[in-house]
Amino acid sequence: MRAAVHTAPNEPMRIEELADPHPRTGEVAIDVRSCGACHTDLHVLKGELPFPVPAVLGHEVAGVVAEVGPGVTELRPGDPVVTSFIMPCGGCPPCARGEEEICQRFFAYNRGKGRLYDDETRLFRPDGEPVWMYSMGGLAERCVTPATSVYRVPDGVALADVASVGCSTMTAYGALRHAADVRVGDTVAVVAAGGVGSALVQLAALFGAAQVIAVDISDEKLAGARELGATRTVNSATTDAPEAVRELTGGRGVDVAFEALGAVPTFEIARDSVVEGGQVVVVGIAARGTTGSFDLATIARRKLQIKGSYGAKPRRDMPVLLDLVARGLLRPQDAISRRYAFTEVQQAYDALRRGETIGRAVIDL
């Protein structure tokens, strides 16, 4: 099969021929039809998140089941599916207490070493050299992942529309539903209107937020956020964003501010935009070592809540999201602004690096 192989930080990915991967017990092989280009992949490509090489990245996958391993009974070859980027093991302490979004084995084996849960990769070069996997390694014609991260796409839903559900949409849903518990009538600011930010805007509107204020430095991205449900927008390159957010909320600030990029300036905007007793939810993945500051006295006096959110709970939440898509209430395809052929995979990430991507870009195979 063909795969886009990451070989060194800040070097272009190379399309190589790798051996076809096959599933082991409890796993599923998927013929990839599309894969979203996520900013977290870009952190790895830039060397900002340590990860072994050579590796295949890509973790927003939509495709068709090619093969199932022993013990997999709920899926069969030919099923249209989407994957969650979090691959819960189902047995570690966090998974056992219902916090599979912080599965210990996922971080120890996959994010730490690029392997699945038998401590081995499924990807190899023709000479037998191992190639490591970031999640399932979806920037390839075929990938293998635990069945706990694979979900059948409902009838009538196009595979080309739903790859991003497994990461940007799921990440946004986890932040809104579990970290912040946004309710009807809440006021929300989304700081950084990229892929995850676009999903936050769309879902916050669906959750019934009274105001959804998108903040970004790009007028194009802000225009896209308005189309997805933002009630007001603020360009932080040309105005004092926290002050503007307060003006838009009658001087009080928002109930919840989501930081969706993973950078100090966006964190500071979110921090300074919330009402007394409000929540600042950090969703964006920052480069290792990035630090944001806050005044402890201010946190105590204003009763601020600063939270982190890594994603939704796949086995509980992915069926909910796919049902919303099937009923037409959630339209992830509306956030897709660019599609690339597989041979253009590096161009997709170059555009993401330059900040040119509005919403989500998808690589079609």
From TrEMBL:
Q: Which residues form the Enoyl reductase (ER) domain?
A: 8-363
Q: Which InterPro entries match?
A: ADH-like_C, ADH-like_N, ADH_Zn_CS, ER, GroES-like_sf, NAD(P)-bd_dom_sf
Q: What is this protein called?
A: Zinc-binding dehydrogenase
Entry's family note: Belongs to the zinc-containing alcohol dehydrogenase family.
Q: Which co-factor is required? A: Zn(2+)
UniProt-listed SMART domains = PKS_ER (SM00829)
Q: Which UniProt keywords apply?
A: Metal-binding, Oxidoreductase, Zinc
